[in-house]
Amino acid sequence: MKKVITYGSFDLFHEGHYQILKKAKALGDHLTVGVTTEHYDQMRGKLNLVDPIMTRIENVRKTGFADVIIVEDHEGQKIEDIQRYGIDIFTLGSDWAGRFDYLKQYCEVVYLPRTAGISSTELRDKLHNVVRIGIIGTGRIAPRFLKETSYVSGIEVVSAFNPERDSARTFEETYQIQTGSEDFDRFLEGTDAVYVASPNETHSDYVRKALSAGKHVLCEKPMTFTYAEAVELYQLARKQGVTLMEGIRTAYLPGFIHLLSTAKDGTIGEICDVEACFTRIGAPGSREMTDARYSGAFLEYGSYTMLPIIKLLGWDYEDFRLESIYGKDGIDIFTKVQFSYKNRLATAKCGAGVKSEGELVIAGTKGYIIAKSPWWLTREFSVRYEDPGRIERHEFAFSGEDGFRYEIAEFISKINGTGGKDYKLTAEESIAMADVVERFMKKRQEYRKKLG
Ligand code: CTP
Fold first, then answer.
1. What's the 119 CA to ligand 1 centre distance in angstroms?
2. I need a surface site. Which of 73, 369, 409, 412 has the fewest CB within 10 A?
3. Half-sphere exposure of residue 121: CA atoms within 13 angstroms, side-chain side
4. Closest residue by Cα to residue 67 from 40, 85, 94
5. How many A from CA of 13 to the centre of ligand 1?
6. Ligand 1: which atom is nearest the Cα of residue 122?
7. How many Å from the N-terminal Cα to the C-terminal Cα in the chain?
8. How far apart are CA 46 and CA 49, in angstroms?
9. What pLDDT is recorded for position 39?
């Protein structure tokens, strides 16, 4: 009996899928079909599949061509499957020609002609209108965002806005994106959504205006400086029926989500303490080193360090202590926030003019999780126990340099309603962080007043 195997995501099952399965089956007597998990697809950079795995499997099953359906969930699995199931022919569509020649040492490799004119990507694009996004702020972060949008389907950057004409013009010339610097309402008109990447103190006003105009908003952290304003903006988004998302990138990374689940599933016992540290010494003259009103260590990096704490322990802390080391003009070069919960403790530390070990440590009654710098771009973490020889290492493929595309993909799937329930960063969690930001701002203002 000649055994054939093929693989795919089979998202939004289409004629091309049907034909390839038919042809694959005709190559032999028995066909095994591997269907990818969402997790594996995410790892290989396919970020916005629409159909859940059970639907995709069911669609393959309904064709009647598959004798066996298996799930593909990791790199290297094809070699394992071919050996385990005694496969004679491995086949995929011609779009993959050459890519799997390394399997020729295990079985015959056949690339079948692909059906012209159809793909899941095209169908996904058709299913939802492409989201036209405008970038507010053309500073350091805008080009990185722009670059990453090209890896997420369903989004197109159509314009950028910056009231500072020179900056807007330079951005337009460099990136060939139409910019505006005067009429904000006109800029909004041509968009479905905006990404707010302007200076911190301007975030909330832009968010409010964009939401009021019915636009979806992705806003860089910190979105607001006060609890009340965060509540107001999320309420406004709900009222307007649009998506509002705070851009704390770490929250949307598959590795970080896995880290949180591991911390919560009893592996390390009861969580007792969370310590998170992020330091990055800013360039001389940079905002984070000079703007004592709206920048500094905590406003730039505090969201990253609060994130695992709020996600794991919530925000019903009983006591709270916030202290900073201040530099020139009262800018915080280092800030430490200590949270005391009932039987649980947490510390968030961040520095812009102080360097320390950037670590996330989650201590439990049975063991602990440790993620080393840059844990906020979670590529790996370890679980360790009393026995120093027992270490469980978790590693994740991570596409791109800064994790932007995961956040962008989440934003698009929220807009399209394909992202499932909101759990990666909820409005309540974002509001709880705004509360801490407000306390920080008050304390720093008091210090600066004393300075005179
Ligand atoms: N396939 C095909 N003809 C098409 C589309 C896909 O023969 N028009 C084949 C692929 O070559 C592959 C299998 O179907 O062997 C499963 O492909 P999959 O990646 O799930 O489908 P695509 O439509 O290519 O998905 P995407 O657009 O997300 O890459």
1. 6
2. 73
3. 8
4. 85
5. 9
6. 27
7. 87
8. 7
9. 85
Query: What is the distance in A from the centroid of ligand 1 to the CA of 327?
Result: 57
Cβ(48) to ligand 1 under 6 A?
A: no
User: In this structure, what token pair is assigned to residue 214?
Assistant: 């019915």
Which residue numbers in the chain have pLDDT < 70? none
pLDDT the model gives residue 4: 98
User: Residue 14 Cα, ligand 1 centroid: separation in angstroms?
Assistant: 9
Burial of 128 from C-beta contacts in 10 A (0-12 / 13-18 / 19+): middle
In sequence order, what are the residues at sequence separation of 6 or more whose Cβ sits closer than 8 angstroms to the Cβ of residue 95? 114
pLDDT for the residue 278: 98
Ligand 1, atom nearest to 116 Cα: 8
Give the domain 3-112 fold: Rossmann fold (3.40.50)
Is 251-400+420-451 in CATH node 3.30.360.10? Answer: yes
Same fold, 3-112 and 251-400+420-451: no
Nearest CA to ligand 1 atom 6: 16
- Show me where the domains of the chain are located: 3-112, 122-248, 251-400+420-451
| Closest residue by CA, ligand 1 atom 25 | 120
Tokens of 119: 């793909």
- Ligand 1: which of 120, 121, 126 to mutate, judged by most atoms within 8 Å of the beta carbon? 120
pLDDT of residue 235: 98
pLDDT at 124: 87
CATH number of 122-248: 3.40.50.720
Q: Which residue, judged by its Cα, is nearest atom 12 of ligand 1?
A: 93
Around 100, how many Cα atoms within 13 Å sit in the side-chain half-sphere? 26
95 Cα: distance to centroid of ligand 1 (angstroms): 8
Condensed to tens digits (0 to 9), the pLDDT of residues 169-186 reads: 999 999 999 998 889 999
